[in-house]
């Protein structure tokens, strides 16, 4: 299915008593009526760098490798995606993050104790993407022309075209001073969210109800001047409304579910959803159960919601908008957790294809479904990216 031949030696035979995942193990794909998916939020470099996963392997091999190593940390042995798996899922294009959050605790599972280390780790993530490009597995999309070319190539060659990605940053912790944003722009950064969990130098994020910091103002100004889109996911409520006031450019919410379904601050209220819709933004639906199941506690509560819950969330956005143009997919899969924290009927990212049938049964037309699976985010980025 992947169709790439590799020139590396077969490591299994070189060192047969050590488990080596099989690079490019071919997923068996049952093609039903697969439709192209644009996933607006994937932490691929976090997996490749921080979690030290060989993303060229199959999901089965990634899981087996971590079982073989006896890893027991949360999210280990339960990965739901890899590059071959994304191809099997028909995810041809995504937003791929630079993610390096500043934390006080030195032993936090991900988090770095200084802005300078966050900056360095963001560069490690940039370098990981570059290495994947050099291996012919991913393709950076920086302009409207890149986007059009990639989609044309992917439609013509769905089994061989690289995974297209638009570089985004989840939490501006690596941006040392507002001006450093220009340097990341030069490296292809086209979207950015100011905060992640907790507060950072730019303002309040998830589970932390404080507003924007003063440094956010020149940063927002520069993001707008550069024509980048502001990802409003992970802003605290007060910071969200302030950001909308101070930022005059395009906005989207990359992985953002409804507070009606999981009533705590990580999710958006109807008013927040409406504000994104009013500014012609697109909102990505996430598959993390903590964002779908009321009262869910990580590593304690079993996941009982199913993927229908994601379709419930799609319905909410469409009802608020009065159309289907403002919702897409931002799965957030393998963003620091594994299959144990996904809907009960979900195993790996190719399961996203099942959304099409679920939406169809609820009366969504083929055009609506295509818009939600890829068209809405494609339209958004075809407007936002530079020429
Ligand atoms: Zn996130």
Task: Outline the structure in words.
The chain is α/β, with parallel strands linked by helices. 36% of the residues lie in helices and 12% in strands. It has one domain: Metal-dependent hydrolases (TIM Barrel, Alpha-Beta Barrel), CATH 3.20.20.140. The protein contains 13 helices and 11 strands. The strands form 3 sheets. Strands 1, 2, 3, 4, 5, 8 and 9 form a 7-stranded parallel beta sheet that branches. Strands 6-7 form a two-stranded antiparallel sheet. The longest helix has 20 residues, at 115-134. The radius of gyration is 20 Å and the shape is globular. The structure holds zinc ion. The site of zinc ion (ZN) has 5 residues, from loops.
Keywords:
seven-stranded parallel beta sheet, 36% helix, binds zinc ion, TIM Barrel, globular, single chain, 387 residues, alpha/beta, disordered N terminus
Entry summary:
By secondary structure, this protein is α/β, with parallel strands linked by helices. The protein has helices spanning 11-14, 44-50, 59-68, 83-88, 115-134, 144-156, 180-186, 216-226, 237-246, 270-278, 308-321, 354-361, 366-384; strands at 37-42, 91-98, 138-140, 163-170, 189-193, 199-200, 203-204, 229-231, 251-252, 283-285, 327-329.
